[in-house]
Amino acid sequence: MEAWIRARVTLALTLFALLFFVSRSSPPRQFVISNAERRIDLSSHIINVHLTLKVENTGTRPASEVVLALTPTEVDHLAMVDALAIKGKRKKTTSVHLEVKPTELPDAPPIDAKYFTIYLADPLNSGESTTLEVLYVFMHFLEPFPAEIAQSESQLVFYHDTALILSPYHIKQQTTFIKTPSTKVESFIRVEPTNRVGTEIKYGPYEDCPPYSISPIHVHFENNSPFAVVEELVQEIEISHWGNIQVTEHYTLVHAGARHKGVFSRVDYQSRQFSNGASSFRYLLARLPARVHSVYYRDEIGNISSSHLRTNSLKSELEIEPRYPLFGGWKATFVIGYGLPLQDFLFESSDDKRYLNFTFGCPLIGMVVDKLTIKVVLPEGSTDPSPVVPFPVEHRLEL
Amino acid sequence: MSNSSTSDLLKPFKLKTKQQELLISILCLVYILAFITRLFSVLRYESMIHEFDPYFNYRTTLYLTQHGFYDFWNWFDYESWYPLGRIVGGTLYPGLMVTAALIYRLLHFLRFAVHIREVCVLTAPFFASNTTLVAYFFGKEIWDSGAGLVAAILIAVCPGYISRSVAGSYDNEGVAIFALLFTFYLFVKAVNKGSLAWGLASAFGYFYMVSAWGGYIFIINLIPLYVLVLLITGRYSMRLYVAYNCMYILGMLLAMQIRFVGFQHVQSGEHMAAMGVFFLMQVFYFLDWVKHMLSDTKLFQEFLSITVTCAVAAGGIALGVGVASGYISPWTGRFYSLLDPTYAKDHIPIIASVSEHQPTAWSSFMFDFHILLFLFPAGLYFCFKRLSDATIFIVMYGLTSMYFAGVMVRLILVATPAVCLISAIAVSATVKNLTVLLRSKNKVAQIGSTKGTSSAKASSKASLDQSQPFQKNGAMALLFGAFYLLSRYATHCTWVTSEAYSSPSIVLAARGAHGNRVIFDDYREAYFWLRQNTPPDAKVMSWWDYGYQITAMGNRTVIVDNNTWNNTHIATVGRAMSSYEDEAYEIIRSLDVDYVLVVFGGVTGYSSDDINKFLWMVRIGGGVFPVIKEPDYLVNGEYRVDKGAAPKMLNCLMYKLSYYRFGEMMTEYGKPPGYDRARGVEIGNKDIKLEHLEEAFTTSNWIVRIYKVKPPNNRW
């Protein structure tokens, strides 16, 4: 096996979910945020924060760099930050994708914070205002409390944040909505005016908050969504001369929620599905490319027979079930493999080079991948491979 | 003119090549058939290792390919027989693993990047294919090439052999039957030819057999017995002398290289027959020489009696001294249990507890041999009609192995090649006689119709026909009968293979309510759970049947496994399972056990579970620890789990672990909760409380239940 692989040109890209940045900037303090609305979605273990900012240039010069601030813990758990500029009014809005880069502010702020700069497409003239939409995605951010639960208990987690949006700018008016997965909320800190309706907690509106004002809150609530985390995923994409791409994905899956404590009783699990093992999960869904063939799902000790494949001309869905339901802290390793027609993914350019166009990431839905390695095995005789990835990654060539 | 003469010259040659072409193509087809008929399990399930022992073989083969031969040879396994461990290199027959590893290396050398598991799965079918070739040559050596062909076909599909050589049944027997037949073939060839080269080859065949399977004992006792019979029947010859001496001396020296066998060839009682015959052989040779030198027959007679007496006395004294001084070990219990079917039941419960060690029922003979069972005596008849050194051998092989097949179910396997060969002789001889009869008539008829030159001959034949008017029709009918029987045999074999012998037993399949196939993959579910969710050094206690599987698939340390070398250790586990929970807890603590695993079929109706095996645990435990008494678990000699069961039964650890919280479970519509489908009764103790253990995992169909051993309570 080794010799056989060594005989080929192997290109391995190792990508980590860490982002490396080098930056420099100066903070233009000429903005004021006239209205800020934040919607925090806590319904799964991946937290989406939608931030809508109405930014007004109160300075004298046109400016194009808007700075966002995050606490260091938030930055540690940040998976993605994305910004859009909204143009037009009401139903005729168009959005423009904006560049976001981490920056450091030289004039030390009163609190510890990390910064990202949004580069506006057109500089904002003095007195003008614009609407920005920012999306943050956090992972590993909910802290299970209690950290160990029994089978019949449901999973409670803590969410820590501040009621006031951390910002280097003056915010005239702001509101925060926190959406919890169910109405079962153990406790939350009130910062008046605070209002809770159904699954939503509303903080605000708060008027005239100076820069860097914070007000720590926490929400302790029930979250039984699957805390499915792939600790490590190794994806091997093998390109064959014979018109086939063979993809093999090695998963190390873990339930990263509150740890399972004590007994696992099958009779309870079978007879009382909803009240028992509520935070455990059994099914996973993988969305595979269309025209997938020869799909297999196995582990070190053999085939796992509990899987279903549904295919149509647009997409293929593979529903898989690990050998046993996963409770907090339980692990499972498995391999998914499939073949794809080469012509769907390989393109030839005029300069006699070939491009493999493959979606980056994990086909399982609702997954957090901690460590991802993609290996592309090129056919024999390939020369000078180079990867093109829209974000910085580590990569190396193995021969 | 010249052209026609050359074609005339070529004619016999051509015919011969045509025959050979036919022969080779038939053999190729048989070779392929033998392979593909064993692939049912791969097609039905997947390419996987079956049953119990093969998992150990697979694990060791994996180790061999990963760490190399010397590490394998010196391997001390900490993961089994905790806390004793096992010297794996010195307690196994490495032939199978080395063979599979060599095939693996070869395939990789040829750039076939196969996984070692695939090699292991297909080793047995591959060797079964090779066995058909050996059967052909053996049949040819004993009788003729026709019998050889029939033997090859019969053995290719014979269920008795298929039972141990389907794809995935990666066990010693898979290669050992090939080695056994090959050794016998080479030895018979050596006896027929009297050549040192064949004797040497048979010694190497024997070496391979010794390296592969403990059944080599059969060879080292059958061959001396055969030689003895030849000596007694006055068939002693120089050929025999050369063949036996060469095979015995070299074979013995080679066999000593296997660590597990070591010096047994000179030290153990089972091997003494071979040595005795070896010395007897020398005496015979000496006498032959003396006879040659002495012309006086009377003098020779006296000399003969003196020498034979002296030789036998010396041999007897040597054996007596050897046994008395302990140099020669007495026969082992396993050997005794082979000679006496009732021995194991009384003395070694651990052997008797294995279902494949039970005496064979008639039905399983019929199941595994089908028509061969009737052809076997017919073949013996033909063999006796044409006695030669070779036929005597096959007769002896057939009769002895049939006896052993009657003693133990699993030894049907050893008898299968002999039965196939002898039956092949019967089939071949019968069919040949019949076709000769038919052909000769056809020829006569043809000649009579086309040419009038040999009319006198024809008329004489015709008169012969007249004397037996229905001979031709009778021959036709008999031939059709034979083919009908053979075709029935083929159908039966295929059916048995597909229905009975192609189940991996680790994955169970059943028909669902809508006729769809339901798969119970509970074993692997549990083993994989152990592998992923328990500490890597966790010790798992289970009955010994599951030991190999837990170490191979669960990758966890076990207390006992299928290598039943330490009876006391197994008895300790048996005692723990049959004690009350608090007593068992002490044993469990003393063995440092973290998890206890039981197999339970009450939900699915899976009958080979631990409750059904439980009486053997009691017996084996009681054999070492007299506190465990079998009658305590029985009610009037009856084994029950329902309300009428013995109180000790209802409260022993095995019962508690199997039925814990089963009383709340509805298994079948219209039956009370806690209805055990494997035994068809409602359980007797539904309110089971566990004090020192807690349920850690139960598989989706409840087949495997794993309990965690709680740490001792704080004393203050």
Automatic annotation (TrEMBL), chain A:
So which residues are the signal peptide here?
A: 1-25
What residue intervals traverse the membrane? Answer: none
Chief location: endoplasmic reticulum
Q: Where in the cell is it found?
A: Endoplasmic reticulum membrane
Q: One Pfam family, please name it.
A: Ribophorin_I
Keywords noted in UniProt: Endoplasmic reticulum, Membrane, Signal, Transmembrane, Transmembrane helix
Establish whether keyword Repeat is in the entry. Answer: no
Pathway(s) this gene product operates in, as recorded in its UniProt entry: Protein modification; protein glycosylation
Q: Give the membrane topology.
A: Single-pass type I membrane protein
- InterPro entries associated with the record: Ribophorin_I
Q: Which PANTHER family match?
A: DOLICHYL-DIPHOSPHOOLIGOSACCHARIDE--PROTEIN GLYCOSYLTRANSFERASE SUBUNIT 1B, RIBOPHORIN I
Q: What does this protein do?
A: Subunit of the oligosaccharyl transferase (OST) complex that catalyzes the initial transfer of a defined glycan (Glc(3)Man(9)GlcNAc(2) in eukaryotes) from the lipid carrier dolichol-pyrophosphate to an asparagine residue within an Asn-X-Ser/Thr consensus motif in nascent polypeptide chains, the first step in protein N-glycosylation. N-glycosylation occurs cotranslationally and the complex associates with the Sec61 complex at the channel-forming translocon complex that mediates protein translocation across the endoplasmic reticulum (ER). All subunits are required for a maximal enzyme activity.
The annotated subunit structure for this chain is: Component of the oligosaccharyltransferase (OST) complex.
Q: Its family?
A: Belongs to the OST1 family.
Q: What is this protein called?
A: Dolichyl-diphosphooligosaccharide--protein glycosyltransferase subunit 1
- The species this protein belongs to is Gossypium hirsutum
UniProtKB/TrEMBL annotation, chain B:
Give the Gene Ontology MF terms in alphabetical order. Answer: dolichyl-diphosphooligosaccharide-protein glycotransferase activity; metal ion binding
Catalytic activity from the UniProt record? a di-trans,poly-cis-dolichyl diphosphooligosaccharide + L-asparaginyl-[protein] = N(4)-(oligosaccharide-(1->4)-N-acetyl-beta-D-glucosaminyl-(1->4)-N-acetyl-beta-D-glucosaminyl)-L-asparaginyl-[protein] + a di-trans,poly-cis-dolichyl diphosphate + H(+)
Pathway recorded for this protein: Protein modification; protein glycosylation
Tell me which residues make up the STT3/PglB/AglB core domain.
539-596
Transmembrane feature ranges: 21-40, 87-107, 119-139, 145-162, 174-191, 203-229, 241-260, 272-291, 303-328, 365-383, 390-406
Could you tell me where this protein is found in the cell?
Endoplasmic reticulum membrane
* Membrane topology note: Multi-pass membrane protein
Positions of the Oligosaccharyl transferase STT3 N-terminal domain: 26-422
What broad class of enzyme is this? transferase
A Pfam match is STT3
Q: Name one GO cellular component term.
A: endoplasmic reticulum membrane
Q: Which InterPro entries match?
A: Oligo_trans_STT3, STT3-PglB_core, STT3_N
Q: Which UniProt keywords apply?
A: Endoplasmic reticulum, Glycoprotein, Glycosyltransferase, Magnesium, Manganese, Membrane, Metal-binding, Transferase, Transmembrane, Transmembrane helix
**Known EC number:** 2.4.99.18
Q: Which cofactor does it need?
A: Mg(2+); Mn(2+)
- Its predominant location is endoplasmic reticulum
Q: Which family does it belong to?
A: Belongs to the STT3 family.
* Quaternary organization: Component of the oligosaccharyltransferase (OST) complex.
Its protein name is dolichyl-diphosphooligosaccharide--protein glycotransferase
Identify the gene encoding this protein.
Answer: LOC107935541
